[in-house]
Design goal:
alpha+beta, YbaK protein, five-stranded mixed sheet, four-stranded antiparallel sheet, 6 helices, globular, YbaK/aa-tRNA-synth-assoc-dom, YbaK/EbsC family protein, YbaK/aa-tRNA-synt-asso_dom_sf
Length: 185
Amino acid sequence: MRAPIGDFDTAAPAPDRLDELTAPVADAVRDWRGTVPADRIVHVDTDPRWADTAVFVEHYGRDLLVRSANCVVVAGKRGGVTSLAACVVLSTTRVDVNGVVRRQLGARKASFASMETATGETGMEYGGITPIGLPTGWPVFVDAAVAALPYVLVGSGRRRGKLLVPGEALAELPGAVVLEGLGVA
């Protein structure tokens, strides 16, 4: 199979690569319920040595710079209660944590979750967190620019490998809320 974006040596439908995914991501792909069929989610093998964005796009395709998204875990606090959420923004932008995210969570304060919290709560590797397979009940804030892409590159749950996912599939994830202005320059 040829990857819909980028220049990858190995690409296959994610349901055929469940053994390459962390357990929560594999479970989410196996139990996929969206209107976009699960076999349109593509797993590509990548070398973790080339994870840095500049090196990654040099190796796998310059078009990926504007078709890649980061998924970060944020923590909102209000009255001693902490709530976690995931934010998916284009890799050329940053998450508006203290504006859009804080308001969406109804929090007094919002910040990026620690690495230990992000990996411990998601069951995914740091640097590979993906919006697919997040804990039940988490809000998943997806920037409108990400949802509008025909395909977007996101993590696979591991540092090795990525997922190519139709933007509309990300907008249909459980807990997904598509937001304008979530990613800012």
